[in-house]
Amino acid sequence: MGMAHLRGENQKRQLFPVKLGILNIAGDMKILLMYADLAIWDLSVPPPLLTLDCTNKHTNSVKSNSMKICRAIAPAIIVCIGFLTHGVSADIVLTGVFDGPLSGGVPKAIELYVTSDIADLGEYGVGSANNGGGSDGQEFTLSGSATAGDYIYIASETPNFNAYFGFDPTFTAGAMSINGDDAIELFFQGNVSDVYGDINTDGSGEPWDYLDGWAYRLDNTGPDGSTFVIGNWDISGVNVNDGQISNGTASNPWPIGTYSFSAVPEPGSLGVIGLVGLAGFIRRRR
Description:
Blueprint: E1 2-7, E2 14-22, E3 32-40, E4 49-53, H1 66-84, E5 92-102, E6 106-114, E7 124-129, E8 140-141, E9 151-155, H2 159-165, E10 171-172, E11 183-188, E12 191-196, E13 214-217, E14 233-235, H3 267-285
Parallel strand pairs: 1-3, 9-10
Antiparallel strand pairs: 1-4, 2-3, 5-6, 5-13, 6-9, 7-8, 7-11, 11-12, 13-14
């Protein structure tokens, strides 16, 4: 039985029995049949290591030369498996957090960016992890639909958000009554798909602290899954918003609505293309 493994740091192991069959153009079923146990770790990030063992014995239903074929095309198979098992990815990225300077510490808000058209925003939600107390889960669920390139703003209230930024937020939610030491989680289908801050650490004095300040994601980064990647963020530092009355006149404004994302081919499409190429390769070797 062939074995394919994905390994990485902060591993979350899930085992999937997979039957991999590769056919030639004429549809000959005798090319290569193998069973692989895929240990899929963190599907939110590209696999750091994937190996394929072509040394084990196969059943009698497989041609004797299948080992040679397996060894010859193993690198390409590995690439295809990596693409095909990368998992369903979220089409929203958490791109900004803001803790305001107006009376009461408002506006308090986050920015989300839509990377692909979304028919049902109800698959997405957000939550705040306050004062290092760990995740509170999904506290607010989005609604409606969105188009690629849209920015979504979720604030604790509307009047002061409008006063500071000049437009109304997309949604309001009590979960966005955040301070600069609170982490933010973005959820997709009930699982964390992106995060700002360490949900188990009070951010006060931490490098990611945004008290009376802001943080904004760097272009073409994210979503980062459940692991906060501080290097993917521009962080203002604390108290930079003090004394400001609007983002437009601020000395160090929140770069609202500036995140840019360059689309890449869907992993599944790349995997299918790769498998088609493998089929042609095998046919030429026969």
